What we know:
Blueprint: H1 6-19, H2 26-47, E1 60-65, E2 70-75, H3 82-90, H4 96-103, E3 129-137, E4 144-149, E5 155-160, E6 166-173, H5 188-199, E7 206-216, E8 236-245, H6 262-273, E9 281-287, E10 293-299, E11 316-320, E12 323-329, E13 341-345, H7 361-385, H8 387-407, H9 413-416, E14 422-424, E15 429-431, H10 433-438, E16 446-451, H11 455-460, H12 462-469, E17 474-477, H13 480-489, E18 491-492, E19 499-503, H14 514-526, H15 528-538, H16 566-574
Parallel strand pairs: 1-7, 11-13, 16-17, 16-19
Antiparallel strand pairs: 1-2, 2-6, 3-4, 3-6, 4-5, 7-8, 9-10, 10-13, 11-12, 14-15, 14-17, 18-19
Helix pairs in contact: 2-5, 7-8, 8-13
The structure holds adenosine-5'-diphosphate and magnesium ion.
Magnesium ion binds at residues 29, 32-33, 116, 121-122.
Amino acid sequence: MKKFKTESQKLLDLMINSIYTNREIFLRELVSNASDAVDKLYFASLTDSDIQLNRADLRILVSFDADARTVTVSDNGIGMTQDQLDKNLGTIAHSDSMAFKADNAERQGDDVDIIGQFGVGFYSAFMVAKKVRVVSRAFGSDEAWAWESNGVDGYTIEPAARDEHGTDVVLTLKDNTDDESFDEFLTEYGLKNLIKRYSNYVRYPIQMEVTKTREVLKPEVIGEEGDTEDTPASPEYETYAELDTINSMIPIWKRQKSEVTPEEYAEFYKADFHDFADPAATFSIHAEGALSYDALLFIPSRAPYDLYSKDFKKGLALYSSNVLIMEKCEELLPDHYNFVRGVVDSQDLTLNISRETLQHNSQLRAIAKRIEKKVTSELKKMLENDRDTYETFFQNFGRGLEFGIYHSYGALKSELSDLLLFWSAKQKKRVTFAEYVAAKEEGQTAIYYAVGETVERLEKMPVVKAVLSRGYDVLLCTQDVDEFCFQTMMNYGEGDDALALKNVAGGDLDLATEDEKAAAEAVTKENADLFAAMKEALGDAVSDVAVSSRLTDEPAALTAAGPVSLEMERILSQMPD
Ligand code: ADP
Ligand code: MG
């Protein structure tokens, strides 16, 4: 028996116990290796005319034996010689695939796509297996060899038999304990699920023998005398086994956009992101260059029920060379676009050995930036070309955009403010800031808004009526975040054209003409004693009593003196400390 190198031994322990956080990924790693082995053979056939190969025969086979507690991953790829078994599986972190990649960096066009690059994926098998046996026959050789290890003591390599080139990796699963069961990997359902989940887009067929049921056609029985003739024969069923391809192979995001129908995109969205409604928008990014990647993104047509709860997790599915790395990669989406669903696939991401944490976040940041820009431009497009869809979108997700402005202290104002909609008291529909400004009165120097619980109530507010009576529109805001967003923005527009955002309930409206101001001042002077008496009577409840020139029909109104409006005070007072 050969011992693993000491470093290997330590690394093996470390890896089994801590690097991989999720034991079920062992199958993904073994399937990825099988796919790499098939790819290497295919690549060799491209460059060596002596190798006659039918690409359609290349495949990966997954099977299990519940009684023997084994799971087997077989491939008819390039296989390994005795020497290669020793070198590739005897030394942890020795990745032949990495060397292959480097050797063929230039020649390797789109046709070859090696997944492995870290040299520890194979050992993830020991998270679930007490024994691993690898039987392999290298292409072009007539010898087969078996490598075997229990992961702890070392490994043996002995002659074996195999009909064809390729490799079988046979795992004998660990025994169940009180805390842990491995039985899920000994079911058709369990294995199929894992293949679909992690390896759905591996480019070679991953096949499994599955049990199916079919109706048996019984030969018609000619009724004898006395038989109840009109009792219909009950159908009989039998089960049979059939080899099925489990993975769908070509990822939809790698297909030419022009070749995919909107229905196919919608089906993919619904199946992969568990929604029953079609997406409101679908778009993609194809980037080539220093960092190549594909992204396929969706805006849902309805908000998930937990969107605004603490449990909601944003993120995009992250694939590296068609293999799922992470179901929800948070770093790819800013908070204000947390509703976006989709997939990012890049073969250029530098992943660390566990594949579960990413080594260089700068690559992710670059992708995230591009995605954010793309979402913004797609939303603008929707706003311009498909107003109804956009209004529904905004009802679902608009609150998040406003929070984006508020939480960024206004840094996102220029990106997001043109995506906001508010109810216009004058136009009786939702408008953007730009539309408000385009319809404003000559000489109007501010954008007016009012905040309250319902549009109906706001319309009745004296201060709203007063502003409207001057011909100025008022945005009626009913969401808790509206006022925080307005206060953060302070104004809308660029440079000299910027208009202040003013709460009609605030103390600094300054709508009065010079004449009106003079009149108010005169009245104030005349009644100075009366106001002093009123103020004294109201005590701490008010900070001042003054003549107003902003009222129309109503005799009096309450306004807030400071930057915080009455409505905002109400919201703030409801917040937990
Ligand atoms: P990686 O795939 O990142 O290179 P692994 O630990 O997964 O690292 O595998 C180590 C090496 O073992 C691979 O680089 C490859 O050379 C070899 N290997 C593993 N599985 C197979 C297989 N099914 N067929 C041929 N070679 C394999
Ligand atoms: Mg690997």
